[in-house]
Amino acid sequence: MHLVHVVFTVLSLWLRACCVGAISFHLEQNSVKCLKEEIHKNVLVTGEYEVEEQQGLKTDLKVTDSSGHILYSKEDAHKGKFAFTTDDYDIYEMCFQSWLTEGSIRVPDQLIILNTKHGVEAKNYEDIAKVEKLKPMELELRRLEDLSEAIVKDFEYMKQREQEMRDTNESTSARVLYFSIFSMLCLVCLATWQVLYLRRFFKAKKLIE
Q1: For the packed helices 125-132 and 136-204, what is the interaxial angle rounded to 10 degrees?
Q2: Most CB atoms within 10 A, among 90, 164, 202, 205?
């Protein structure tokens, strides 16, 4: 039991560092600020946001993928949550856009707090325990299993990216080598042509025999 707690704690800290992001920033009036994040395929993403209310200032929130598909949209956002599951490995964008209502004067910048989670950290294990009637030990083992699976998937993805980068480097090196050989052959041909041309020219001018 103690070992399970230790392992679970280590894995939890590791995933919290890479799967959870809580940030706050100020948004000027009539401006747009977007946050981008790369996320794997079939990953649950949840977010919770809070927008400071300013009189005469409204802020819209829109979550999209790289193709422009809208995953979540909220006009005049104040406080709320959103959730979606990724269809593919992609870059997902969360944009806050503020604008002044008609007749309003300049107001202070809005404070925006955004907390996003994805993967294992986004799952609600309390609901899972209630639905599947899991005991505390069983629930903790379920979390440990999900954490381990997430780590394995991350390592598999990193291995795949490493292989792709290695293939790209090898392909680039081969192309550079072929281009270098082609350039050297062109230079040799050009130098040979210049020597023959100058030889004929000097012979024509009777400067050499």
Answers
A1: 130
A2: 90
